[in-house]
């Protein structure tokens, strides 16, 4: 007879985006970017900030790859979009965060929420900050996900 595992009071389960959902987000992001006439790099991170999926359009500049990954990582870190960080960094107590490696405070990175659960991040790089943010939000909406809880 096997017993069911007893839930621990020392751990908690963590929801995270699936590979399938990450691949779908990339497709939606590329379609949104095409509609704006831009070529982009798209990065999806899981709930821990680790890269889950990535794609770069043929015409996207090489630096867009690292920037997209870091935008997704930044958005996942606190569950806040990268364009919101500009205002947050104006506060003296938060200003030092701008010096963290990988930290990006430019539009185009959004946390991925499935309901109230943070499940990952999406990073877009290739357009201007507003275009990148718009692409990220359109991709999330197409899959029924959100950039905030």
**In total, how many domains does the architecture comprise?**
1
Which fold name corresponds to the CATH topology?
A: Beta-Lactamase
Oligomer: single chain
Rounded Rg: 16 Å
Shape: globular
User: What is the terminal-to-terminal distance?
Assistant: 42 Å
Measured by DSSP, the beta-strand proportion falls in: 15-25%
Which characteristics define this entry?
149 residues, 4 strands, single chain, Beta-Lactamase, alpha+beta
Explain how this protein is built.
The chain is α+β, with helices and mostly antiparallel strands and about 150 residues long. The chain has 4 helices and 4 strands, in the order αββααββα. It has helices at about 20-35, 65-80, 85-90, 130-140; strands spanning about 40-45, 50-55, 110-115, 115-125. A 4-stranded antiparallel sheet has the order 2-1-4-3, sandwiched between helices.
Quick summary of this structure?
The protein is α+β, with helices and mostly antiparallel strands and 149 residues long. It has four helices and four strands; from the N terminus they run H-E-E-H-H-E-E-H. The longest helix has 18 residues, at 19-36.
Q: How are the SSEs ordered, and which strands pair?
A:
Blueprint: H1 19-36, E1 41-46, E2 51-56, H2 63-78, H3 85-88, E3 109-114, E4 117-125, H4 129-142
